[in-house]
Every structure is written in C-alpha cells, then in structure tokens.
Amino acid sequence: MDVRLVSWMTYVWIQAQIWDVQGYQSGPVDYVSEKDISLLEADKNPKCFTRTLEDFTCFWEVSDDTSYDFFYKTDEQETTCNLTRQKAGGGRSLQVCSLPASDVFLYAVTDIRVVERSTNRTVLNRSVSVEDQVLLDPPTNVSLSFTGEAAQLRVTWHMDASWQSKVQYEIRHSANNLVGSKILMKASLTYMLDSLITGEVCCVQLRVRPNGYNTRGYWSDWSQPAAALVPQRAEDIDLLCHTSDLRNIQCQWKEQSFKEEAHCMLFYQLSPRGSWQQCMFSKSPGQCIFSGLDSSIMRVNLRIKEGPHEWNFYTESFAMDESIKPDPPKVLSWGKEGTRLRIEWEPPLWNLSAHLEYQIRYRCNGESMWKLVILQSPNNSTTLDVQAGTQYHIQVQTKPNGSIYKGIWSDWSNTLCVDVPLDTEMVFVAGIFLISFIVVALLITSFSRNIRKIKQLLWPPVPNLEKVLEGFLADINRECQSQTFSVKQCYEETPASVVEIVHEKKPFEGGKGPKEGVLQLLLEGKTVGECITPLETCPDYITLNPENVISSLRSNEYVSGGGHLVGVGLEVWQAGHPCSCPCPSSGFTQSMDLLNQSYLLPAEMGKGLGFRELASRYTNLELATYPAALD
Predict the structure, then answer these.
(1) What confidence category does residue 481 fall into, taking pLDDT thresholds of 50, 70 and 90?
(2) What is the residue range of the signal peptide feature (predicted)?
C-alpha cells in the first residue's frame, strides 16, 4: 500500500511540473503543446481551436522549409495572418497562426486558405466557426475528501464561472490497477464516489468539453490527479462501540495492524449534522470512552496516522439503546435437584433484567466440547442435566432480547467449578447392571464352550434309514421264528339259549328219543360233560321237516336241495365259533375227522359218512335212529 501511494505522489508531482512548464494561456495563443496536437488529431488541417471564444488559433504540420501564406475571410475582405514556425517533437515543425481578438466572430463562418508561396498554389482550405472549435483548459483544484462513510470519497474541483453551465465533465478514478470513468452531465462542482476498494489509494482526474447546446468542441486534457486512501469499515480493525450502563460509550479496536509509532485518534459525532469531537479519555491503548445520549444517533471515526499516510475507519450510525453489551452475569449459587443441577446468577443490570436472555455452557472436566443451553426468558436460574460423581465447568453470558433494547452478547462469566455428588441409588443400580453383565458374560462363555453338546440335544443327528430298516426286519423275522402256530381266540359273546322243539309223534324205532341218539353218536362212549366243555356252547336246533331223518350228526352240517348232506368242516366251524378244544384226541378223533371233511362235495360226504338219505334240510336236530354201520 505504501509503495502505491508513493508512486502516485510521484506521478502527481511530475504532472504538476509539466503543468507549470507548459501552462495554459488565455487570449491569443502563440504556443501549441503536444497535448493540443494529440487532442486535435482528428480535426482537419489546418487544425483550429479556441479556449475562451475570444481567441482563435490554427496550425498544421510541415516537413520541409517551404514558405506558406495563411488567408482567412469573415466578410467580403480576405486577410493575411502572420505565421510562426514552431518545433515539435519527433523532428516535426508546425506552422501556427493566431488571429487577433478583433477578427474573432462567433456564430459566423470563417473561410481559411493556405497557399504555397513559391508556386502560389492553394494546399489547404476549410470553413470553420469559432463556437464549434472550443478546446477548454482542464478543471483545477481537484481534491478528495471523506464523506463519513466507508468506501466513499467526495471529489471537488474548480471551473471558470462562465463555463460552469455550458460544459460536461468526465471523471476518471483508478485504484488497485482498476480504472473507472463516468461522464457527468451537470453543472455541480462536486461528485460522490462510492463502492470503492477500502484501504486502497484512489486517484481521480477530470476533463471537460462544451455540452453541445450553444458551443461544441473537444475534450480537454486531464486535470492534475488527486489521490487519497479510501476509508475503511470499522470491522476491518475490529472497531466496536457499545454501552454497558446506558450512560457511557466505550470504543475499542486492535492496534496490532500498525506499527508502534502510529498515532490513533478517535472522533465521535452525536448527531448526523453535528460536529466531530475528539475522544480524550482512554483507559488503555486501543480503547476510548466518551459520554453519550439515550436518544442520539452517533457515529465514530478512528484515524490512524503513520508517517505521511492516514487511515480512516468509520462505524455505522447507531443509537445507545441499540448498542448494549452487558457485563457478564455473576453466578451466585448452585444445588442439586434430583438428578439435575440448579444454578442461579445475578443480572448485570437490574433495570434491564426483564429484557435480557441468557446462554449457559458447561462441560465435564477434561472435555473440550461445550454443551450449550439457551434461555429466551429473563429467568436468572435454570437446571442442567449432569452425571453424578463428575466435575463440571459452567459459564453464563447475556444480551438484550431485542424487544426494546438491542445489543450483543456479553463476555462469558468466570468459570464455576461444581463437583456433583455421587448418588447412592445410582451406584446400586450400576452395581446390579455390572453383576448382570458379568453373569451374562459367563453364560455366553459357557454356552460357547458346550455349544456342540447343546446342538446334539436340540438337533439330534438324522439316523441311517438303511441300518434302521435292516434292524426292524431282523426283529420281525426273529419273532416269526419263535411262534410255531397261531391259535384263534374265542369270541366272548354270550351264546343263545337252546330251544328244543319236541315232536308230538311217537318215538323212533329202538325206543330212544332224538336227543339220546344224537348224544350217543357224537360222544361215542363219552359223557356229556366231557363234550360240552371243549365245545363251550351248542347252537340252537329247529326242526322244520320231522319226516326227514339223518342217521347221524357229527358237526355243523347243512342239507342241499337234492337231499344230500353238506358237511361244514372244521375251518367253517372255527370261523363261526373260534374255540380251541382241549379235550384228548382219543375220544374225539372221529368227530374231528368228520369236520375236516367239510370241503368235500355233498355226494362224497354222504358216501364217506355212510348216509343213505337225508333226514332233514337242517342237521342241527336230534336224530331218532342211527345207521347200522359206518363205511
């Protein structure tokens, strides 16, 4: 920044020296500068200009020593102008003619003719009006001043009063290698530059030309440059002004950005149009205090001068009741409520206690992260969630809630260290949890060691079906080999009572009744008790045709339609009466033989048994007669 400022100062000094050497003259001009030549470069030859509307000068370039005559005519009479030869840069030469003031007429056409003297040949000619060839001097006394706002500069200059309402300006400003320009179509001699780069050197120049209403012409040369440091914002140096008691304003800033020999001065303004006053009371470097008013709108300007340079810092306009920074609260007491910690503090300003809000931050001892609690109420106490048996660090800060008073957060209060006592119930619960954890850990360890056995109990292995089937078949074969015969079991149904139908006729031959004959045939010498026991029961007997007589009956037999006896063998008898007979085989052999012949045809059965005819269709009858002999 200092190098740029020095370079701009050097440039301004050089421009001033050139200005003093060349200068700008009013009235007839006998000297044409290089700037004039460059400004009129676009004009036709001979190039003409006027500075005050009372002078008129024409010139053109020549490359040799040829002699010329210059003629001009305003009325009917043509007049000769005395030419002067002038050296220009680059080995060039100029032929210059300055008309006397008596021959300068406004709003009239002037005819110009240049003739080569040796040949009397016209080489240049044109018609011009003086009011159209105006080339003014640049503005003077260009200066920069502060407006009381950051990033702004006020530009002022001086212009001849006769031209103030007839000209337009172009202002050019540059800062940090950035150039901007603007044409000003107004008669004012001041202009406000805003949105500049703060803290940078700004250089300003102006030029002028007729506005074209009554006169026309060319842009003048640029004026001498004016340079200044653009004012900065208060935030650039951390300038902060506030009140803690609604009476005094305290401003503080950082001085580390400047050298020790820098001189700081603080100025304040108690009203928008009031004068700037210097703050005289300072407690320490980088701080100053002055008295304010409750309803006043104030501004503060900090000026830091270091060598030939001066930096300016401006605050925004502020009121006292909107710039409050309270002192930190004072923590008075604390206590435990159940599992929470209650703290209480004292407000910094009792007259503002109903318009304050608070922030509490706390952390465990050894931790770096703070827990933040915001209380948007004027209560000066709260409860915090803490852990028993832990040390906590607690701080409190406050600020206006914005309802009536506004401001910023205060500094944090002094740190309060609290040792929260241990809770016996929590210790007991923690012990239970610890024991439960140990038991669960042991169970998990035991389970992981015996997991294979548990799996075998819960999910037994799938048996080999081939081996199981082989064992099952072997057991069946073993049981079949051990059983030599099967005995059919006897039904347990109650036999029906025997109904005996006695024939009314006389007995058969031989004097024996049917019942007696039948028993003799069946038993063949056995007693009645010996036969009834193995047979258990005897079927009922019904005689449907008493004329038919069967010679003998040895088992359940039926008579076919042709009169032949059909024997029902042992197997049929056993199906109807599944009984086993434990009687000795010696006395019952013939009866069993007869029963075993039940599968024979009726004719064969009759022949084998020696039956000559059938006695009845049903053989379950007592017979009266017996055959003489058995075949």
Answers:
(1) low
(2) none
**What digits encode the pLDDT tens for the residues 68-126?**
899 998 877 888 998 888 887 777 888 899 998 888 888 889 999 999 888 888 999 99
d(CA 312, CA 290): 19
The residues that bridge with 246 in the sheet, in sequence order, are none
Query: In Å, how far are 352, 445, 548, 592 from 555, measured between CA atoms?
Result: 134, 83, 18, 8
pLDDT at 162: 87
CATH code: domain of residue 359 = 2.60.40.10
What is the span of the domain harbouring residue 120?
25-135
CB contact at 8 A, 60 and 71? no
Three-class DSSP category at 123 = strand
Per-residue pLDDT reduced to its tens digit, 348-381: 988 888 999 999 999 998 888 999 999 988 888 9
Question: What is the greatest pairwise CA distance in the chain?
Answer: 214
427 assigned to some structural domain = no
Give the length of the chain.
631
Q: Is residue 337 part of a domain?
A: yes
Residue 388, in any domain of the structure:
yes
**What are the backbone dihedrals phi and psi of residue 492, each rounded to the nearest 5 degrees, phi first?**
-105, 20
Residues 6+ apart with CB under 8 A from 420: 336, 341, 386, 387, 388, 389, 390, 391, 392
Instruction: State the pairing for strand pair 217-218/134-135.
Output: parallel
Beta bridge partners of 171: 182, 206
Rg (CA), the chain: 73
Asked if 157 and 259 sit in the same domain, the reply is no
For residues 231 and 281, what is the distance between their CA atoms, to the nearest angstrom?
24
What value, to the nearest 5°, has the Cα angle with vertex 294 and ends 291 and 300? 50
Instruction: Report the alpha-carbon distance of residue 15 to residue 10 in Å, rounded.
Output: 9
CA nearest 631: which of 616, 618, 612?
612
The one-character DSSP state at 130 is G
Region 375-395 average pLDDT: 90
In this structure, how many other beta carbons lie within 10 angstroms of the beta carbon of residue 459?
Answer: 8
Indicate whether 203 belongs to any domain.
Answer: yes
% helix / strand / coil in the chain, to the nearest 5? 25, 30, 45
Cα–Cα distance for residue pair 560/567, rounded to 1 Å: 10
